[in-house]
Specification:
The complex is a heterodimer.
Chain A (H helix, E strand, L loop, with lengths): L1 H8 L4 E2 L1 H10 L7 E4 L2 H11 L3 E6 L12 E5 L2 H15 L5 E6 L5 E10 L3 E8 L3 H5 L2 E5 L4 H10 L17 H17 L3 E12 L2 E4 L2 E5 L5
Antiparallel strand pairs in A: 1-11, 2-5, 3-4, 3-5, 6-7, 6-9, 7-8, 9-10, 9-11
Helix pairs in contact in A: 3-4
Chain B lengths: L2 H10 L3 E5 L8 H11 L5 E5 L5 E2 L2 E2 L13 E4 L6 H11 L3 E4 L10 H17 L3 E2 L5 E4 L4 E4 L8 E9 L2 H13 L3 E7 L8 H9 L6 E6 L5 H10 L6 E5 L13 H5 L2 H11 L3 E3 L2 H13 L8 E5 L2 H13 L9 H10 L10 E2 L7 H12 L6 E7 L7 H12 L5 E6 L6 H9 L4 E2 L3 H17 L1
Parallel strand pairs in B: 1-2, 1-5, 5-6, 6-7, 10-11, 10-12, 12-13, 13-14, 15-16, 15-17, 17-18, 18-19
Antiparallel strand pairs in B: 3-4, 8-9, 8-11
Helix pairs in contact in B: 3-4, 6-7, 10-16, 11-16, 12-13, 13-14
Classes of the chains: A alpha+beta, B alpha/beta.
Chain lengths: ~230, ~450
């Protein structure tokens, strides 16, 4: 893929959030609608397009943990808030190469993680688990080797302790398991078809109603062995 | 079937076996291998190879395999590593079909010369399509053919059966073999893969799938290079025969230097476990449960559902069994009305008559116990039976009373038991019941319950 080749050519092994999501979108994995802007004029155009509430994030391949660095502004409701957030982000990014990502605010209380890691012996392995802040705290996750069959994808969802989060709970719709199966299979496919992809984190995958949407993503590359 | 697979059949079923390095000297492994073959009553031809003596253990010996005129199917090699390439060249020339290479000193040693020797040796046999078990192995045993090609003659004391153990460790093979003797378990083969010159887990699984002597495959794994091969082989054969695996080496955690959460949480052990699930291999995490599960799989059909009847001579043991069954996802549901009526006729309302059934009030009445077992066996809601009975002086004849019912049933649904007496009193009767496929017995109610739970777990993943 061009995005991957270009990044490696530039000597980068990290794709920015926007680049990472472009890779996912290429594989028809649902991602949040978003536009990259670098001045207030394009910011206003983007907000018109995306609508409110919106999310503004610092976006750079040099930043991989945006939350810790205070580069995410959620629930932006008007132009004023957007301008303020834009100014703060551009100031904080400072000298780093990057711009600001204007994103639709995905609403949903359930956050999942879907990932990929390339193991020297097992090859590309797909991960599924609880997302957001719970990923690291609870480590409620499961793995399957790529390529995944539908059965594998269904079983790995059932394997996590909190699998009931996918059911109809507390008035929420049950998760669209067919869509999740499809995403898991496709993440495996990205690993199989792109040797340079070392790791993928899609965290969180937010359940918007029943539909999973990739709200944030990170792809790590490695130079293929020649 | 490829050439190597055809030769594998002869490796495990040879008409003639040469022991290269056979010896009358007890301090040599070649002595113990000869003893294994002779004590194990190998019915084919045994050909000791030793340039220094005319006979070994009273059998005519030859200076080299070239000097023996007949055919040699299997060559067991116990000579020092540096001699192995030349020996294998002779084997190729002679048309030997397979080898067990007990010798150590290949890629497992620190010195890089071991790895070179490994490759050199592999190239010789690979060209000729000769399968090699080893190097650095205790050997292998094919019990159904009275072939003990190992340096431990006592493996021949194992009962013949349908469980095969494929192990990466000689120590664990000995441990499991000796434990199995105490559990009265029957084996088809025990195979020490050692350092896998050209036969790894994947080829072994392929072979065992078509081995009519083997019904259950157990694996002991420490860590292998070609793990994808093992998984692919198991996936390809999924559902054909149960594969149960015990993998040690949990310690290694994920890649801490990883920049993503996924990378840092993907420990090697988690990946093994996931891959086993994905390939329909049942993961077990200790030696005891590995054998217990294999024992149940070897005699029992797989349960068609998760509902278990717990029938106990005493209430306490049934509580222990029920706790474990339920925590492992099995169900202890109600009997059908018909079964319950029957049990109510047989037991006074002094104890729990619904599932689990406390047969305490009938403990001296084996007719009643027999009828309760029959009713549960034939209950359409019930997919398996856990039967628990502790000895008491007053019920010393209980097993005699229920023997016929149990034997007649022949495990049409799994019947797993914990029948226990002080040493010797019921031992022979229990053994006879096991050998007649009436029960699979365990020393504790928890182990009996766990064996049942693992039968059901396998149904879910296969």
């Amino acid at each position: 893929m061009k995005i991957i080749k270009n990044a490696l050519k530039e000597g980068r092994t990290v794709l920015s959030e926007h680049e990472s999501k472009s890779v996912l979108a290429y594989y028809q994995i649902p991602v949040s609608r978003e536009i990259l802007v670098d001045n207030t004029e394009t910011l206003m155009e983007a907000l018109q397009e995306i609508g409110y509430p919106a999310v503004l994030k610092g976006c750079s391949s040099e930043i991989s943990h945006k939350t810790e660095k205070g580069l995410i502004y959620l629930d932006i409701r008007n132009e004023n808030e957007a301008r303020n957030a834009f100014d703060k982000i551009t100031k904080d990014i400072g000298g780093l190469k990057g711009s600001v990502l204007v994103q639709e605010m995905i609403k949903g209380q359930r956050e999942l993680v879907i990932g990929l890691t390339r193991d020297p012996q097992f090859g590309p392995c797909v991960m599924f688990g609880l997302g957001g802040i719970f990923t690291e705290i609870l480590k409620d996750i499961s793995f399957r080797l790529a390529p995944l069959e539908k059965r594998d994808a269904l079983e790995m969802m059932q394997d996590i302790k909190a699998h009931k989060i996918l059911d109809a709970i507390r008035g929420m719709e049950p998760a669209d398991k067919d869509m999740l199966v499809d995403i898991l299979i496709k993440v495996g496919k990205i690993g199989l078809e792109n040797e340079e992809v070392k790791e993928i984190d899609i965290n969180p995958v937010i359940l918007s109603g029943s539909k999973p949407v990739a709200a944030d993503a990170l792809i790590i590359l490695e130079k293929p062995n020649v | 079937m490829d050439h190597v697979m055809i030769n594998m059949r002869l490796l495990f079923n040879p008409g003639s076996v040469a022991v290269i390095g056979a010896s009358d000297n007890m301090s040599k492994l070649g002595f113990h291998v000869m003893k294994s073959l002779t004590n194990g009553k190998f019915p084919g031809k045994i050909i000791p190879i030793n340039p220094g003596s005319n006979t070994v253990m009273g059998i005519d010996a030859y200076p080299s395999i070239k000097d023996y005129k007949g055919e040699i199917d299997l060559a067991i090699v116990v000579l020092p590593a540096k001699l192995v390439p030349d020996i294998f060249k002779e084997c190729v020339d002679k048309g030997v079909k397979g080898s067990v290479l007990i010798t150590a000193g290949f890629k497992e040693i620190d010195d890089p010369s071991g790895a070179h020797l490994h490759i050199e040796t592999a190239n010789i046999v690979n060209g000729a399509g000769i399968p090699v078990i080893g190097p650095n192995t205790f050997g292998m045993i094919n019990l159904n053919k009275n072939l003990n090609a190992s340096f431990t003659p006592e493996f021949s004391n194992l009962r013949k059966g349908n469980i095969c153990l494929v192990s990466q460790s000689g120590g664990i093979s000995h441990l499991l073999g000796f434990m199995a003797m105490g559990l009265n378990m029957g084996f088809s083969k025990i195979i020490g893969l050692g350092n896998r010159l050209n036969i790894d887990f994947d080829r072994m699984i392929d072979y065992l799938m078509s081995d009519s002597d083997t019904k259950v495959i157990t694996l002991y794994i420490e860590g292998i290079d070609n793990v994808r091969g093992l998984i692919d082989s198991a996936r390809k054969n999924r559902g054909r025969k149960p594969i149960i695996a015990y993998k040690t080496g949990k310690g290694k955690v994920g890649n801490q230097a990883s920049m993503s959460h996924t990378g840092s949480m993907a420990g090697r052990h988690e990946l093994y476990r996931s891959a086993f699930d994905q390939a329909g291999i049942l993961s077990i995490d200790n030696t005891e449960t590995l054998l217990d599960t294999a024992k149940a799989m070897s005699a029992c059909p797989l349960p068609e559902g998760p509902c278990i009847a717990v029938l106990s001579g005493q209430a306490g043991p049934s509580m222990a069994a029920c706790d474990l069954l339920e925590s492992e996802g099995l169900k202890i549901d109600s009997f059908t009305g018909k079964t319950q009526e029957k049990i109510n006729e047989l037991l006074p309302p002094l104890a729990l008559r619904t599932n689990p059934v406390d047969m305490g009030p009938a403990w001296y009445d084996s007719d009643a116990i027999q009828e309760i077992i029959k009713a549960a066996m034939n209950d359409e809601n019930i997919n398996g039976i856990i039967f628990l009975m502790m000895f008491a002086s007053a019920n010393v004849d209980a097993l005699k009373g229920i023997r016929e019912t149990l034997i007649k049933w022949q495990q049409k649904k799994p019947v797993i038991s914990c029948i226990l007496s002080p040493p010797a009193i019921w031992d022979e009767e229990i053994k006879e019941l096991e050998e007649n496929r009436a029960i699979v017995n365990y020393p504790t109610p928890e182990r009996a319950a766990m064996a049942m739970a693992n039968l059901w777990k396998y149904v879910l993943i296969k």
